[in-house]
Amino acid sequence: MSTPQSPAAPAGGPDPRRFPARALVDLAAIRDNVRALAGHAPTAEVMAVVKADAYGHGLLPSALAALAGGATWLGVAQPSEALALRAAGVGPDRARLLTWLYAPGAPLRELVEADVDVSVAAPWALDEVVAGARAAGRTARVHVKVDTGLGRNGIMPGELPGVLDAAARAAAEGLVRVVGIWSHLACADEPGHASVAAQADVLDDAVRAAEASGAALEVRHLANSAATLTAPRTHYDLVRPGLAVYGMSPVPQVAPPQDYGLRPAMTVEARLVTVKGVAAGQGVSYGHAYTTDRETTLGVVPLGYADGIPRHASGGVHGPGGPVLVGGSPDGSSGGRVLRVAGRVCMDQVVLDLGPGARERAGDVVTLFGAGAGLERGGAPTAEDWAQAAGTISYEITTRLGARVPREHVRFDVLDDDARALVEPTGVQHTTQHERTTAP
């Protein structure tokens, strides 16, 4: 039976005093991705979508990095996200903000007071925005969202004239200014799908109706990440990339992120907590869905479904298992070998079959996914590879990463002095690309 090595010194990886895993977020990658996206849509401004804690990457640092890359707008789903950005110091002089998903009773007055643009996706929403503006004593900036075919949130075209008429009456009182008309695409991740052009046609009709009602539109916007990269017709005045800001391809069946000038910003790594030899025929993890076929060495990684590691990426009889890079550099540029999760993903841990005579030790660092080229290109695992193993999409892999996994941001030097002052821990300097610091 193989003999496990002595524990490794905890250097160059997650701080075991906090949690033996971490998500490193490269702010330079986010900045550069936004620059690349702007190059794909040269006629439009860029709204970097930073909802859901910036797709799991950390709201404030990611937003500031996107602005450093040339984004002039930030988009969030929920009002609390917009108010958090304003409270953190991202003022209207630094970026316009748009929020679009709320229920009756939302803090519309606070949004208007904070100079946050608000989407109106139903007649009741306009009524509440008007009430919020009246209470705030200032004009609300409104983007009217039209359901052009997605069949989700938005005003149906037949209801639009009534909403625009009501908005015009509110505008005459100085309570509302309709500054945008927008919608969201249903099938942009299928480039060339007929619905993309059809939805753009409906949006064009909505723009004409808004302008006829007296609205002085500043922006018309439709394109998400996929359309930003593949559908120039949809770029209008503003594009709204989300996933691509963080370096993942929204159309992985067409091309990997590198082909679009993008690179993943997040690397998830952990320390092995147990390395031990076992005999052939040893069942591994719950239900023994994986059984060793020879004398081998098992390694335990302290991340599980409570941390957002998808249980559907279990290995053995369940499927191939999520991929993990053992050894080498996190991007796969030097050394290392790719192994798969052995057996079921548990709440707090997964198991790897390290193989006979494995030299790994407790404390060694393994990488679940990062900025590698991906398995199809012979590189290190990516979030897309985990998505394939779990039968989902890369969006879900990063956004579901649990709160107890520390986000550690690197490359604060890409931010200007004022931006760094908003996020840097007191007294910490950031001057090189190798520095790793935990954002507050």
Low-confidence stretches: 426-440
CATH superfamily of the largest domain: Alanine racemase
The CATH class assignment of the largest domain is Alpha Beta
Number of helices: 12
Structural class by helix and strand composition: alpha/beta
CATH fold naming of the largest domain: TIM Barrel
End-to-end C-alpha gap: 46 Å
Give helix % range. Answer: 25-40%
What would you report as the Rg, rounded to the nearest angstrom? 24 Å
How much of the sequence lies in strands comes to 15-25%
Number of DSSP strand runs: 22
Assign an overall shape: elongated
Summed up, the domain count is 2
CATH architecture of the largest domain: Alpha-Beta Barrel
What is the residue-averaged pLDDT?
93
| Major beta sheet summary | 8 strands, parallel
Strand order of the largest sheet: 8-7-6-5-4-3-2-9
